[in-house]
Amino acid sequence: MYHDSAAALVVDGEIVAAAQEERFTRVKHDSSFPKEAINFCLTWGNLGLQDLDYVVFYEKPFLKFERLLETYLAHAPKGFSSFSKSMPIWLKEKLFQKRYLIQKLNDLSDREVDWSSKLMFSEHHLSHAASAFFPSPFERAAIITLDGVGEWCTTSIAVGNQNSLKIEKEIHFPHSLGLLYSAFTFYSGFKVNSGEYKLMGLAPYGEPIYEQLIRDNLIDVSHDGSYKLNMDFFDYDKGLKMTNRKFSKLFNGPPREQESEISQREADLAASIQKVTEDVVIKIARSVSKETSEKNLCLAGGVALNCVANGKLFKEGIFEDIWIQPAAGDSGGAVGAALALHHIMLGKPRRVSSSIDSMNGSFLGPEYSRDEIIEKLNKLGAKFHVLEEDELIEKTAKSLVEGLAVGWMNGRMEFGPRALGARSILADPRSPNMQRDLNMKIKFRESFRPFAPSVLSTESSKWFELDRPSPYMLVVAEVKQDKRRMYDENHSTVFGTHQLSLPRSVVPAITHVDYSARVQTVHEETNARFYKLLKKFKDLSGVPILVNTSFNIRGEPIVCSPEDAFKCFMGTKLDILVIGDAFLLKREQSTSLSFDYRDQHALD
Length: 604
Hints:
By secondary structure, this protein is of the alpha/beta class. It has helices at 22-25, 35-44, 61-75, 80-94, 97-108, 124-133, 177-187, 196-202, 211-217, 245-250, 264-292, 307-316, 333-345, 370-380, 389-401, 434-443, 460-463, 528-541, 562-570; strands at 6-11, 14-20, 55-57, 119-121, 140-146, 153-161, 164-172, 219-221, 227-229, 296-300, 321-324, 385-386, 406-409, 423-427, 452-456, 475-478, 516-522, 545-550, 576-579, 582-585. It has 2 domains: 126-355, ATPase, nucleotide binding domain (Nucleotidyltransferase, domain 5, 2-Layer Sandwich); 370-600, DHBP synthase. Helix content is 35%, strand content 17%. Strand 1 (6-11) and strand 2 (14-20) form a beta hairpin. It starts with 5 loop residues before the first strand and ends in a 19-residue tail after the last strand.
């Protein structure tokens, strides 16, 4: 009902399946009732709706409506425009959501089900906290949830112990670290709820010259990390925009127009809000550690996807260990709501392994058999070779060494925003031109955006300043000193995105301008085929790393099906496509199947 609609299936405490609706409908950040995701989960679990003990929604609509109404009344008559626009959908669907959900569920079922005692509602931040703690490898932990806003809550502190979880502290709307970051996302000309990644990626090109201005005018942070925003500069609590004229005056100009050229000002703004965000997160973590005496920390909420802040938090060593929910945004609320009901309401015990979490590598989506893939590719008119695994790995690795870009679809689709080697575009990290080429010719996105490395788990500490696993690509770490390429004073005058022209390490395609990288450690236990591919690439190149970016173009969700993968293959300059055991070469495909994505207005 907002964005990133999803469904998850939990059976006896085990997460059996989970997927975002966008992957099936091909509508990015789809907010609609997750009909297709539910159907997938039930099919995967071999269940009908009538077999379910409970269905649980991830938040409480009446509390959210209360916030909307109280906020409007506090500012009336200001904010009438946004209030009047939101009312029809509230009065039609959201305010009577139980009735609406029952109707939608019955539409999916071939028989009537009595939902009066089966349909439950969890609070938004409880769902987030449960998604972070219950799948974690910790018997007990502190939990920090940071996002835009749930019903009222924007920041919460909780403590989990075995199968119990209790929220101890909250910060309420309109004071929100997530919405503060989104305000700068909007002001920098990016789309709220999807452009925050871009702002984070832009930050290293700038200097935090506005940091003090932000601290003096926009946010008041206490010693324990609690904070208040100065709402004189924001419009999201009463209007349809994130910021107002006073905000623009503070930063000497209007918001950047979307798709216009990015200037040094945007880079400096990004660096400044990133620095403030990191400092608040670290302050909160220090306070939580002191107050709870817990040794472990779990993170969830959209701000937990800020992998740069996560990397800084790891380096601080405040907690012995930290675990972050890979679907930390609202989609992960589906998993959290189900687990909260199972453990908290029903009192069912947890099965905890100290060596591995229970997210199954986040590979919780659909998978296609060899026969299904062959049938679908034949229907599409594709030319392909079906290979045994060893030959497939060999040919793919050799193609990567030759500098070709590979679309890689393997096993169950990832749950969450990151491609982790199941629906990925792969390339050679040694190429100095690969970042620009992938961005411009395949992803059709801004050239400054960095790419992540996937590295063999056994080799990660040799290449990155990382002393722990990072299977979900949620931590930024620096490239090791001996792998860097340093520059003399003649290059010190290169600023902003022009720094892209300077290769900064022996693996330049994954090294950001500040020598950082968003690392994914690949483990044989959770993704054996991808692990074998990395191993073979290392045998051929001496480097145990591949560029790994999500298998999609800008403005579209990550591919789900063989049809999605083939469409992306034929609409971009990808050279190779691997779907399961099928190996496809672009040069062998009929030109009649090609098209240009940009002609379909796919850009967001």
